[in-house]
Design goal:
The complex is a heterodimer of chains A (463) and B (146). Chain A is mainly α and 463 residues long. Chain A contains 16 helices and no strands. Chain B has five helices and two strands. The chains are: A mainly alpha (463), B mainly alpha (146).
Chain lengths: 463, 146
């Protein structure tokens, strides 16, 4: 750690990992409800648990992105953070607002929460992933503005590296696209059209810039390869990302009331969306092969390579599988989508946040480049358990999805939704089992933070 | 990558390419919006249908169901439920009666909560689902099972 103010990142990373545990707990509840329909009913209905599961994911990834920014921006800019105090303040504001929102989901019926938070004044609730009360959404915007101001001022005062510029572009894009969550017309088609400007242009657009910037930063640190080379790759990858991804939005406009020409635009451009992810694989492995130093943090290098591979599989391959319009006609809104969603989010965004945590946390804790061998071993066990179980979750959901498509949409005598769900329950059991292994992996991963500190750790001052 | 391919080349590809495709996307969006009135059934958005959408949102229906294929995959697609459950021949009544009768209480089976909707809200959400079923969705879903 080169700058004292980078220390605020530690708070964000701890907060992120805490919420990650909550997300997985609710994932296990959902997985159980898929096979034991009345599990925890009526205390926690499925829609409530799902909202907690997805919202916690979004919030902890945002904490992770912010922590990453607070860690890497000062180091890249070669200056202290503009205001560490503001960063700490915004952390607590965001955490308390997030906690209150989740408590609201769990303790009050959703319609009651809508009344309580005066949703009628500016109705934005009740849409997938954007379930937060309007007042929480406003809070998110305020936190985002404060965060961008803090990071922006830091960048302006210091060295303007490509990594900082790309990260900042991604973060500004994130905040700008979120503003479309406030647009909720009575016309469902228009509502859906612009809802995707938040959801798609986040995860298949600006978030990939953030992902690329963090990956590039960690690769520079871990491999010692020239910044020139890495930044060239970074720009090229995110160029292809947006060139394919912006019009790739079209793959959501096949069946929601929009014109048929979107079937062509969406199919062609989203078929190209795996390319930037494949470039990311080439990038990560090339840089590791050309490394000029053997960084002792093997776990960080493993996470970096893992991110590239799993993002390519989850977002690239599993996305391509059902993105062409004639195929999507059959798979739209089935477990195929769920399979893709799980591996893409894990592979791209969960893993990139765990990559930067892996690299930064030993420094933040004053341990030097690693927190010792025992910690590294546990962390790598966590990596493999979580990653392999996520591969199985994805495979089982894909199996369930293929059967669902066949039984419900292809046969001579299509089965009803619920009849088909019962027929494919076996795969849901296997998915639940994989989920339990994932939780085991997460516990193992977290245990890596509680090993004995390495000898001589005090050499690097903890903040 | 060759030496001639400099960092500023790749930066220019990024900014140039992104801005170009963003403008194309905005252009396509304008074209789409101007053609939507013929497809999205907006002429039939009555105050009742608008209220129905609000009831749909305020009870987080999307947390279990899909609507035009988007949402959660725990419960049936509702974009075509009006047609699947009788259409002009009792579709609205079926939807109202179904919501009123929840939860089924059948052991081990997926349960839909009781939302305690007023008669006005029940009628509105049924009308909203009828309206949704009349959007031109390019022939999706493939069959009435959704």
């Amino acid at each position: 750690m080169h700058y004292q103010s980078q220390a605020v990142a530690r708070l964000y990373f701890i907060g992120a990992l805490g919420l990650f545990v909550g997300q997985i707990l609710f994932g296990l509840i959902l997985g159980t409800q898929y096979v034991i329909g009345d599990f925890l009913f009526p205390a926690i209905p499925f829609n409530v648990a799902r909202m907690v599961h997805t919202n916690l994911l979004i919030v902890w990834l945002l904490f992770g992105f912010m922590g990453a920014a607070y860690y890497l921006v000062p180091e890249e800019a070669e200056t202290e953070l503009y205001s560490p105090l503001l960063a700490k303040l915004l952390f607590w504001v965001f955490l308390v607002a997030g906690a209150l929102t989740v408590l609201g989901y769990l303790l009050v019926p959703y319609a009651g929460l809508a009344r309580l938070t005066m949703n009628d004044v500016l109705p934005t609730m009740g849409r997938e992933f954007l379930e937060q009360p309007t007042i929480t959404k406003i809070g998110i915007v305020i936190v985002a503005l404060g965060f961008l101001f803090n990071i922006g001022m830091t960048i302006l005062q210091g060295r303007k590296t490509s990594i900082n510029i790309v990260l900042m572009t991604g973060l500004v894009g994130l905040a700008v696209m979120f503003l479309f969550s406030f647009y909720n017309p009575d016309n469902l088609v228009l509502d859906k059209y612009f809802w995707w400007w938040v959801v798609h242009l986040w995860v298949e657009g600006v978030w990939e810039l953030i992902l690329g910037a963090i990956l590039a930063f960690v690769l520079i640190k871990v491999t010692g390869v020239d910044r020139e080379v890495i930044e060239k790759w970074l720009y090229l990858i995110i160029a292809v990302t947006l060139i394919t991804g912006i019009l790739g939005t079209g793959h959501h406009y096949y069946w929601i009331g929009t014109q048929e020409y979107w079937q062509w635009i969406g199919s062609v451009f989203s078929a190209l969306e795996p390319i930037p992810f494949f470039m990311m694989v080439l990038f990560a492995f090339n840089m590791i092969n050309k490394r000029r130093r053997n960084h002792p943090n093997k776990a960080a290098a493993l996470w970096a390579m893992g991110t590239a591979v799993m993002a390519f599989l989850g977002a690239g391959v599993w996305g391509f599988m059902h993105t062409l319009a004639p195929i999507n006609y059959l798979t739209h809104g089935t477990q195929i989508t769920a399979a893709h969603g799980h591996m893409a989010f894990y592979g791209a965004y969960v893993m990139i946040v765990l990559t930067i945590i892996s690299y930064a946390m030993p420094h933040l804790r004053g341990h030097g480049p690693t927190s010792g061998d025992q910690s590294q071993v546990l962390e790598m066990w966590g990596f493999w358990l979580m990653t392999v179980s996520m591969v199985f979750i994805t495979l089982f959901l894909t199996g369930a999805g293929i059967l669902q498509v066949y039984l419900q949409r292809m046969g001579e005598t299509p089965g009803s939704f619920m009849d088909v769900q019962e027929k494919i329950a076996f795969f849901y059991w296997l998915r639940l089992f994989s989920g339990l292994v994932f939780m085991g992996g997460l516990v193992t991963y977290l245990a890596s933070f509680f090993t004995k500190a390495p000898a001589g750790a005090a050499a690097e001052v903890s903040a | 990558m060759s030496e001639r391919f400099t960092i500023s080349t790749s930066r220019n590809i990024f900014f140039g390419g992104s801005v170009f495709f963003l403008l194309v996307f905005l252009g396509l969006t304008m074209g789409t919006l101007s053609g939507l009135p013929e497809r999205d059934n907006r002429a039939n958005i009555t105050p009742q249908v608008a209220l129905g959408k609000k009831v749909w949102e305020n009870n987080n229906c999307i947390g279990c169901h899909t609507l035009l294929g988007e949402g959660a995959y725990f419960a049936p697609e509702l974009g075509n439920v009006y047609g699947r459950r009788g259409g002009a021949d009792g579709g609205l009544e079926f939807i109202r009666d179904w919501i009123r009768a929840q939860p089924s209480g059948v052991e081990g089976r997926r349960q839909m909560p009781q939302f305690n909707l007023s008669e006005e809200e029940l009628e509105a959400v049924a009308q909203f689902l009828k309206w949704t079923s009349e959007i031109n969705t390019a022939g999706w879903p493939p069959n009435r099972e959704g």
